[in-house]
Amino acid sequence: MKSVVIIGAGPAGIRAAQTLVAHGVRPVLLDEAARGGGQIYRRQPANFKRSAVKLYGFEARKAKALHQTIDELREQLDYRPDTLVWNAEAGALDTLHEGRAARLEFSRVIVATGATDRILPVPGWTLPGAYSLGAAQIALKFQGCAIGERVVFAGSGPLLYLVANQYAKAGANVIAVLDSSPFSAQARALPGLLSQPSTLAKGIYYRTWLTAHGIPVHQGATLKRIDGEHRVQSLNWHNAASEHQIECDAVAFAHGLRSETQLADLLGCEFTWNPLNRAWLPQRDRAGRTSIAEVYLVGDGAGIMGADAAEMAGERAALALLEDIGYLIPPQRATQLEQSLNTIGRFRQGLERAFIFPESWAADAADDLMICRCEEVRVGDIRQVVREGHWEINRVKAHCRVGMGRCQGRMCGAAAAEIIACESQRAVSDIGRLRAQAPIKPLPFGLEVEP
Amino acid sequence: MIEVDAVIIGGGIVGASAALFLSKAGRRVALLERDFCGSHSSGVNYGGVRRQGRPLSQLPLSQRAHEIWGQLPQLIGINGEYQRSGHLKLARSLNDLHALQDYAASSLGFGLDLQVLDRNELRARFPWVGEVAVGASLCPDDGHANPRLVSPAFAQAARRHGAQIHEQCAVTAVEHDGQRFRVSTQTGLDLHSPWLLNCAGAWAGKLAAQFGEAVPMHAGHPAMLVTEPLPLVMNASTGVEGGGIYARQVARGNCVLGGGQGFALDNARARPGQNAVIEILRQAVELYPFLEGAQAIRTWSGTEGYLPDRQPVIGHSSTQPGLLHAFGFAGAGFQIGPAVGQALTEIICSGASKTPLDAFSITRFHSISVA
Ligand SMILES: Cc1cc2nc3c(=O)[nH]c(=O)nc-3n(C[C@H](O)[C@H](O)[C@H](O)COP(=O)(O)OP(=O)(O)OC[C@H]3O[C@@H](n4cnc5c(N)ncnc54)[C@H](O)[C@@H]3O)c2cc1C
User: Fold this and answer.
1) What is the C-alpha separation between A56 and B205, in angstroms, rounded?
2) I need a surface site. Which of A268, A311, A362, B315 has the fewest CB within 10 A?
């Protein structure tokens, strides 16, 4: 029999599962990780014993609630952790679990695949000791280790202050926070941010806490270069006034998040350009329905909205799914969720204004800057292909291999798009969309096949 | 209105090489490509540049192509990662080895210089081949190239020689007014010319049918995958007698493998499908044990035209003077494509191709009713 399937056991996927179960549906919940929680509420290995407050700070209550939910649901779910969905075709998902490949047919699927950091490379970013913000956070949350002894956090987006704060609280030596957004942008964004006063308060709290603890927070500060012989030893940053050098042994950086959309793509969902996310995103309605009747999208995988929104979107899409297969759902609950999502959406617009995208990054990037570390493609290689007359991103990929390696462009795709757009003098929305190809993560030879 | 000597439909390696040779011969050419040049079969194929294994009727043309490939940098300005690594066709049974011996005997005189290797010779020369192979046939001067680079470069070279290359420009209507063709495109171009070259790959059947010579062509979708870069091991491109999987390793270290069939997403896009991918991942380790534990990082497929006898249609239309066909290459047109472009050029410039094309005439389907 075909199942109702949820991909991803983060806040969105877990709430979707809970909602389905509450109505008597027993979904299959697939997750690449060993324990449910997703990225933000990622759980430590079973033998680690740090408290929830220590791990999740302000979010401890939410994290605990979510973990408890999935633990309690276990018997009512077909929960399959450690399971990678590497391919999707109409009506079926292809999975890999402990070296075994299997196929799972679905009647409906809720895709809750989350997000990863948006990376805009700087010289030296491939040195050992340079991490994305998300990776730095996972090292701390999951393994309880810091990425270095003297750490600098750089880039923009709410994760910047959050991770810096988590590191400082865990006892790491945070040397500086370099926020590329100018203070003026953040002041302008305030009206939008006020739609979520508590979240805004947290953001202000993180920053104030850092300053109060003597950690320098610089705004309008651009990370220029990371230096070191075998690993990170120092970095250079500048603001409007001057250039500075900092000695450090690790740096974590990113410019916000980007949605993981490959499965939606393989499932055939229509995409549209989303200016707010500066990315192509799968289309969906307010409830999470996509252009494909059997496919629903929730959480950051469908546009960056954060964990609270993900929980609501998971529940909302599950209600839509239930309705679509003939269940009666409480309409006022659906409306209420949509209204709350709307409010968060306004806050999100404010955030985007507060943490503005560094538009000049592409023009400033030097030719020898590495963009695609899997295939070792540099800015100059991409520019060269564009100068030969190519501007469509998949064509540029075909010619210089950018985005062709093992991460399939998940790390370099956003940066490559900026370079192509800048060099071809087109809008970044006018250079096409990097198409997803299976496997979305590497697949080993000699795998076994489930009969 | 654009007046030219020849309009070419399709910017794959066949159409683009025709555009290149025609413009080098001084003809005014307009090439019309629905997507981007070399974005379909010609740009996504396995990259095998081999003569070995082709039907004997293709060998004169294939041999000619072999010479063109030898001149690649002079012709298109890049080497396209072309290397004459040798093509090793493996036999998994003595029967298969006999078939390879028979082929070697019958293709003598075409210049392939095939060497049939028994088990010991194969082990000694190609120790990375798995135990399942009991022998092989080696064509030392066959090889492989990067189709993503080579095929678009033919179109670029044609442009440098004066050809008009129109991309994202689908042909929407063709008619013949008794004197010349009138071709219109989606982008609003209106072209006139005495010659029309149907090089539209898997999509060429429509135009043939319009001129009253429908062909029983179907689309196929070979499945491909590539590994992460591995230490250099394979010093030949390989295939297997009787079909199965084929593999080569590029200078960067990635191994490219193909085998089995994928499926069509729509009229122009295809995917390899999980069955084919998993079959490759399973079978490959028998033939190439060094792949055990390696990772596949990407898969793809393409849309290729196949006629029932797996031979292409090349040459004059039998119903419309001035119309030339060149399509249906059955998964083997990358190597031979440039020679086809040259042969079409000879038909236009000197009345006939130097290489016989009779075996590829479209008239061979005239008595067959098309399903
Ligand atoms: C996955 C795969 C692996 C292969 N491996 C090999 C190999 O190893 N070795 C080998 O020799 N061969 C191989 N082949 C076969 C080879 O790629 C093809 O035979 C060859 O590229 C055919 O070239 P073409 O120019 O006829 O077709 P194509 O490259 O398909 O070009 C036809 C073009 O016509 C265009 N077109 C169609 N309709 C219109 C229209 N109305 N208006 C404008 N343009 C139009 C299309 O957009 C297309 O670009 C393989 C094929 C595939 C799909």
Assistant:
1) 62
2) A268
